[in-house]
Putative pterin-4-alpha-carbinolamine dehydratase (Arthrobacter halodurans), 215 residues
Amino acid sequence: MDKLTSAQVLESGLDDWRLLAQALHARFRTKDFASGLRFVNAVGEAAEAANHHPDLTLTYPLVDVKLSSHDAGGITQRDVDLARTVSGIAREQGVAAEPRVVAEIELALDTADLAAIGPFWAALLTGDAGAIDGDDLADPNGRVPLLWFQHTDAHEAPRQRFHLDVWVPHDVAEERIAAAVAAGGTVVDAGQAPSFTVLADAEGNRACVCTCLER
């Protein structure tokens, strides 16, 4: 299936879901662990029937669901269809969705020489120096956040090389930025908003609040 654009995903009416960096995310609050397990089992049966399988995380009293089509490199119609099915199961079982609380962290590292440093970080984080795909270092076993390498010019003057990309729902970004500013931060660059906004703490350490909009 063809990969959908961010706009197409947002127009799909998936009220229980939010598109973050690489996938559709949903959080469902169950009444207890047994209810969560019952919900996961029902989702698993639906996934088998659709021959399309989400990532499921069961904790007490939450179930997190993540959907993407790896063969297409993003979100496709089958993800949208399965998301609707999962939401239907949640309604039938009386499980409430909490879409505004989902979030995702990615690490970004400036480098002028990916070939020189990439294998080191891949080996350190995953144990496999070859675990690099383009500009991304992704752990296939899902143990660590995605690290991506941001190409930059060579430089000798000290400056921040690492920063966090904090992916939040598009309808949460403004309040998250406001909360960070109220807590002592500053907006460094909003020129690419709402795609991403660069913030800094009181000592100048930077991070980006990212959304799926205008991507």
Remarks:
- The chain has a mean pLDDT of 95.
